[in-house]
Amino acid sequence: MAKKKYKDKYDKLENAPVKGLISFLAVPTIFTMLVTAVYNMADSYFVGRIDTASVASIGIVFSVMTLLQAVGFFLGNGSGINISTCLGKKDRKTACIFANVALITGIGVGIILALIGLFFSVPMAKMLGATETTLQNAADYLEIILLGSPFILGSFILNNHLRYQGSAVYSMFGIVSGSLLNIILDPLFIFRLNMGVKGAAAATVISQIVGFIILVTGTFQKDNIRISLKSFKPSRKIYATIFKNGLPSLARQGISTVSTISLNFACAPFGDTAVAGMSVFNRVMFLGMAVVIGYGQGYQPMCSFNNGAGKHKRVYDGYKFTAVVTTLIITVLSVLGFIFAPELIALFRDDKEVIEIGARALRFQCIIMPATGFCTASNMLMQSLKISGKATVLALARQGIFYLPLIFTLPRIFGVFGLCYVQPAADILSTILTAILVKGELKRLKNSKE
To answer: How far is CA 332 from CA 103, 136, 336, 375, in A?
Structure first.
């Protein structure tokens, strides 16, 4: 049987079989997320060859990277959902306005953050939980990372824009090329040029600049929406729409920053080994979550576009498929993570205490991880359908509503190993909340007419 041909990518979004379409969109996104996860871990791996305090220092600054990601995904998803929905309605002009307002605004925010980092890196490092032994390295790393903020934010925004237009392959090239370059530059700058922690930060920023340039080039390919100052037409209505639709992403990533800072403070009484152990645990967990989030992001453009086109059955069928596949994938990864937890932690820091703390946290997390497939698919669904209120609550649940009270209570009860129980307990509670909030929306979606 001959393979069906589609007029363009928009025809494909609207009419291609759901399972094949989501998988087609998800594969480059998953690959992008995995490479991003590896490059996020690269700093920890190479810096781990220096000493435990250095690993702890970049773990402290990791919260700033999640903050930049929060702002980038806030603007990128907030505008991207509207881009995809407008394209589904055949309104390309409005889609162009959303794209350019979000990108130029993000670059402006990045310039402000760069100036803040240039003059206030030391007090910021203290605010993030740096101790006397980690302060200088954390401040040096932070200053360089924030100087690259305009390019980091621009990359996150363009990545989302291309993805929501069904051009995940172009998005993949930009992010992956920068990530691979970072992995190559890390050992060169850290060891060969003897820059230490500063070298890790410089490698990250240079790779982000290269990735940004490639993503900009991708916007000029085929029928993708291009960068144009003529389409920069900011208005209260445009910003309000971006804010509403991007709020779940901002909440999800922003609360992750708050939870990471809280974890740093909770770890501090137990010493640098606790900070390093939980920092490495978070990097390893990000690898597993990257697959789930990547598949969910493959579903989002299909969901938003077909919602705009009024094809609700495709939206519902796509959700079911995404939830099942992500659950199967994360279950397999959880089993592997549980079995090889000590070995995975030891890759980054061969320290007995660091391995003990990190491995215990990883194994407890792997027990509840299969539920994150259902939770992620549900959150992606509600955000893509612009059900911002419930999507924001769910985005806040995992590392905010439930996590923050637990991080300040369980370590006091169970000591250093109480740190290991916080995220699994928060995930159990957020899964229950997700099931309650998504039930009505799924019923409405299932019963709605085309």
So the answer is: 37, 40, 7, 17
